[in-house]
Each structure stands twice: as C-alpha cells, then as structure tokens.
Amino acid sequence: MTEATDSIAALAREMPLPTLDIVETGENRLLLPLVRWLIRSRRINPESRMALEFPWLGRRIDLATLTSTRRASAYELKLNGLGRAMEQAAYNRLAFDRSYVVTASTPRAENLALAAEHGIGVIVVHDEQTRCLLESPLLPPVPELRPRLLAKFAAIGRAIDV
Fold first, then answer.
1. For residues 155 and 132, what is the distance between their CA atoms, to the nearest angstrom?
2. DSSP-assigned letter for residue 7
3. CA distance 137 to 93
4. 16: which DSSP letter?
5. 26: which DSSP letter?
C-alpha cells in the first residue's frame, strides 16, 4: 500500500459509522479495494469529499464522492443481486454526474448492455483487484436535485484525508 491508501484505510477505521466496524464482511469487503482504486486512478484526491451510507431521497447510497470540481459519483456495492443494484444506480443517475455498480463478479453480457443503456458504470472488485468494466458517462443531473445534493455533501463538513 502507498501512503495515500494507508491514510484512507486509517480514516475508514476511525470513522464512527456502523458499516465501518464490519469492513471485511459482506458487501463492505468491496469498499477498501474500491477506495484504493479511486485514489490510484485519481478519481478522488485530498480535496474530495466521501460519504459512506449517504442518505439520499429516503435511501442510502453505499459510497458517494464529490470532487473539488463538483463532480458527484455514486457507488452501489453488491456481491450478488445485480438487478437491485442496477435499479438503485439508475435512481442515483438523477442527481449524480456518474453512477456505478460495484460487484465481486463479472456481470453477464446482457447486464452490461443494460448498464450501458442507462449510463451506469460497472466496477468489479475480485481478490483485491479492481477493474472498471464499463465507464459511467458524465451526464448532467436533474437541475432541481443538484442544490439539494451539494447541500448534503456540505453537511459532511470535511474532505477525505488521502
């Protein structure tokens, strides 16, 4: 690990969120490899904001990020049951610039085609290896939702420590 990934891992262990107490179980096994990959691929940096279990429109998004250039991305983590994750990611598309499903196995071709049709990216985390199979295109969110989303991120109050 690099110094940057060490500090984000330390941040994740220190945050008082119940989901972080069980990082190595269930869907949360995907979380730290994903965050490390987001750092390595420069999708997030020290000025970015990151929220776990981000409350949004009566639901919770597994991971939400906001860059210093105000690009918001949503990540739905699912070990299986990709259909439900795709539905959640489609809802996220309304307010976020990019929306992704993060899974532990390579989706079938028809699921990748469905994701592409709806502008949903697909990231696979397997054995600590993270690959983006399908990029989520940068699309403008619904303008009425944007101020509300940015206010939610502002309430987080701090950037991540990478």
1. 30
2. H
3. 10
4. -
5. G
- Give domain 3-156's CATH number out of 3.30.1490, 3.40.1350, 2.30.130, 3.30.70: 3.40.1350
Q: What is the pLDDT of residues 109-128, one digit of tens each?
A: 999 999 999 999 999 998 87
pLDDT digits (tens, 9 = 90+) for 125-153: 988 799 999 999 999 999 999 999 999 98
Mean of pLDDT values over 69-77: 95
Alpha-carbon distance 149 to 42, whole Å?
22
**Which two three-digit tokens encode residue 96?**
């976020």
Residue position matching structure tokens 């919770």: 60
d(CA 131, CA 123): 6
Are 34 and 43 in contact, with CB atoms under 8 Å apart? no
Give this prediction's pTM: 0.83
Q: Of 123, 156, 146, which Cα lies nearest the Cα of 40?
A: 123
Phi first, then psi, for residue 97 (nearest 5°) are: -70, -35
